[in-house]
Each structure stands twice: as C-alpha cells, then as structure tokens.
Amino acid sequence: MTVANQSAAPSLVISIDKRSTQVRWQWKLHIISLVQKTWWRLYAHGVVFKVMLLTLGSLAFLYVHWMSRNVLSVVSKHDASTR
Questions:
Q1: At residue 78, what are phi and psi to the nearest 5 degrees?
Q2: d(CA 80, CA 53)
Q3: How far is it, in rounded angstroms, from Cα 62 to Cα 30?
Q4: The total number of structural domains that make up the chain
Q5: For residue 8, what is the DSSP state?
Q6: Three-class secondary structure of residue 30 per DSSP
Q7: Is position 13 within any domain?
Q8: Number of C-alpha atoms within 13 angstroms, CB side, residue 41?
Q9: Among 45, 58, 62, 82, which is most exposed with the fewest C-beta within 10 angstroms?
C-alpha cells in the first residue's frame, strides 16, 4: 500500500478566488455605467446645443429680414421723394 501511495500522481486542485472575479465584475460594471452616463450626458447636451443653434439661426434670419425691410422702406421713401 505504501508503494502505491508514493507512485500515485498528485491531485490537481483548482481554486477560483472569488474576490478577484468580483473585482473584475465590479470594474466592468463601473466602466459600463460610466459609458452610459457619459452617453446620456452627451446626448442631452447635444439636444440643447441643437436647440440653441436653431434659435440663433432663426434670430439671424429675422435680423436679416428686418434689415432688408428697413433698407427697402428707406430706399422706396427716398425714391418717392426724388420723383
């Protein structure tokens, strides 16, 4: 019996450290949540930026339209007074 015990192959023991797997999952979840927060913040800021750009474009159009009406009314009054 002692000879058989000495010649037997050593047993292979595999142990998984639960802490290391938990740390990996925590990092993955942290990175995923960080990406999601960043995406939603950028999306929200993008919407605000688009609305501001549309507003400024509309105001610029109204300003040009108002100035052209002003200039045309001044020119037409000037033409009418010279006749």
A1: -70, -40
A2: 40
A3: 48
A4: 1
A5: S
A6: helix
A7: no
A8: 6
A9: 82
pLDDT value at position 55? 98
Q: What is the C-alpha to C-alpha distance for residues 60 and 56, in angstroms, rounded to an integer?
A: 6
Q: pLDDT at residue 18 above 90?
A: no
Q: Is residue 53 part of a domain?
A: yes
User: Judging by beta carbons within 10 Å of its beta carbon (0-12, 13-18, 19+), is residue 78 exposed, middle or buried?
Assistant: exposed
Q: Which residue has the higher pLDDT, 57 or 81?
A: 57
Distance CA 74, CA 82 (A): 12
Q: Look at residue 54 and tell me if it is in a domain.
A: yes
Q: Of 36, 14, 32, which is closest to residue 24 (Cα–Cα)?
A: 32
Q: How long, in residues, is the chain? A: 83
Residue 66: give the domain boundaries.
48-78
- Which has more confidence, 65 or 70? 65
CA 51 to chain centre: 16
The structure tokens listed for 69 are 């009406």
